[in-house]
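Structure in, sequence out. Go:
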């Protein structure tokens, strides 16, 4: 189980599943142009939250144009 699924499971336990399903969970780890697609295709990851790395135009472009299959 990945961290995103774990977090969503805790929210579902405390509240209920339909509320947990509506919450957007962002991955905030080490996101790079080479791994953004892989990270965001995880079922419970709704996007990414990044810091200074987004200052790179290459990274910013890959982050906003990820391919969620």
């Amino acid at each position: 189980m990945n961290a995103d699924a774990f977090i969503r499971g805790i929210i579902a336990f405390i509240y209920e599943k339909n509320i947990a399903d509506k919450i957007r969970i962002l991955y905030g780890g080490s996101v790079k142009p080479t791994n953004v697609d892989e990270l965001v295709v995880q079922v419970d990851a709704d996007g990414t939250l990044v810091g200074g790395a987004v200052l790179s135009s290459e990274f910013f472009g890959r982050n906003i144009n990820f391919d969620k299959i």
